[in-house]
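Two proteins were folded this term; both appear here.
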Amino acid sequence: MWHSTKIYLFVVLSLWCSLFAKADRPKNFPSTSIWTSVWDTEVNDVAFKKVGNKLQENLTVEELVLILNKTLFLDIEVVGLESETLKIKINDSETLTEHMGSSGAKTCLGIITFTLTENSQVKMVDMDFEYGSHASPGVYSRINFIQAF
């Protein structure tokens, strides 16, 4: 239990503390994540909370990926979009699959999914990465994480 709590705190702190370098972003570009995880005391589990603002509603998929790469310290690249499913590749995914534990990995995948589905053209995210102990590649939608926790 304590190990999962430490991972949760790491993910939350990294999301809140990570800022973009000003040279990397256009004016009015979001400086922190759009979605984060919170502990829901009513159900005693993780829930997702939107922390973004109105400026974030019209961001492109590429801009959303830039936010994720900066706030989650990942290397995500867009492969393509086909019939409301965005295909991405997470390079060097060992931290995600082996070092966050199961709760940390699910939380991270949830934040990726919720963030990328902010774009109106994206309903599902097909994540390609190296299979690991705590996370598996596949197609994810918001419902996967609402039911998972």
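Next, the second protein.
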Amino acid sequence: MFYWFMLVISITAEVIGTISIKFAGDDAGPIEYLLLFSLVASSYYFLSKAIQGIPLGLAYAIWEGLGLIMMLLSGYLFFNERIYNEKLLACCLIIIGIVMLNNGRINASQKGE
């Protein structure tokens, strides 16, 4: 459970860090950029902790996939960006891919691989 918690922290830091890029335009000062870099660096730090107990491919797929979905929702909620049907389909495909990767991990462990 610890490793999954590390992955959730990593995803959260990545999403907040990426959102802060939108706010760190030309008029941003050094504190805003320090926050941005700290969040992105901490995201990779926590991802490195997560992959100690979660297979790398699965952890990265979840990190990237859920991060993308959260960014899509953040754009909609905070920046009035539209969500088109193609984006919703892409999110569904991401979730399907993550589920398939996880099922492959579970099936391999049941077979003793």
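The longest helix spans residues 85-110. The chain has a mean pLDDT of 89. These notes refer to the second protein only.
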